[in-house]
Amino acid sequence: MFTTSKPLRFGDCDPSGIAYFPSYLDILVGVLEDFFTSLGFPWRAMNEVRRMSVPTVRLDLTFRSPGFQGDRLDFALAVRAIGRSSLDLEHTVSRGDTVLWTARHRIVATSLDTNTSLAWPDDIRAALTHHLETAHAHHPAT
Ligand SMILES: CC(C)(COP(=O)(O)OP(=O)(O)OC[C@H]1O[C@@H](n2cnc3c(N)ncnc32)[C@H](O)[C@@H]1OP(=O)(O)O)[C@@H](O)C(=O)NCCC(=O)NCCSC(=O)c1ccc(O)cc1
């Protein structure tokens, strides 16, 4: 499990002070980037040196409770399945004990030269496997 916290800022909210959900996606991408950096694979090096990227192909969000300007959002990212080129993640976003939203998320390793999928390089796969949580793991095809 990778965990981190992000502030819900003025600019992330509508005039009533409630979270504007497209901003949640922007913040989520930052969390994903931080996760890869924590594994030792910052995106700039992945892009420039390895010529690879990790676009999102599926994202299923469930909003359970509103977030408000000034909240501290606690993100928990779990690796649920690792395919040939795909990676299934599960996000839980909370304010204190209250779950605000959850997401099932699939990204795919791709080549920036061909814009097609790429098998996870062995070193990245090994680092991802270290985070795999088998208790609720599922086959990536499901
Ligand atoms: C990712 C793709 C190149 C994959 O296409 P292909 O090369 O033909 O691959 P395949 O169809 O063989 O599928 C490859 C894998 O992806 C999986 N896949 C592909 N599409 C899907 C969808 N829609 N749902 C679920 N799984 C999918 C598939 O199951 C394969 O999994 P493995 O068995 O584990 O390998 C293509 O689907 C694509 O370009 N999709 C658009 C992606 C996109 O534009 N997303 C929008 C957000 S951009 C983004 O998030 C981002 C960009 C850049 C960054 O640096 C970071 C983030």
UniProtKB/TrEMBL annotation:
Single annotated GO MF? 4-hydroxybenzoyl-CoA thioesterase activity
Quote the Pfam families the UniProt record gives.
4HBT_2
**Keyword Hydrolase attributed:** yes
Q: Where is the signal peptide?
A: none
Alphabetic keyword roster: Hydrolase
Provide the E.C. number(s) assigned to this enzyme: 3.1.2.23
- Per the record, the domain of life is Bacteria
Q: Mind telling me which InterPro entries this protein's record contains?
A: HotDog_dom_sf
- Which Gene3D superfamilies would you find in this protein's record? Hotdog Thioesterase
Q: EC top class, in one word?
A: hydrolase
- Write down what this protein is called: 4-hydroxybenzoyl-CoA thioesterase
Per the UniProt record, the source organism is Shinella fusca
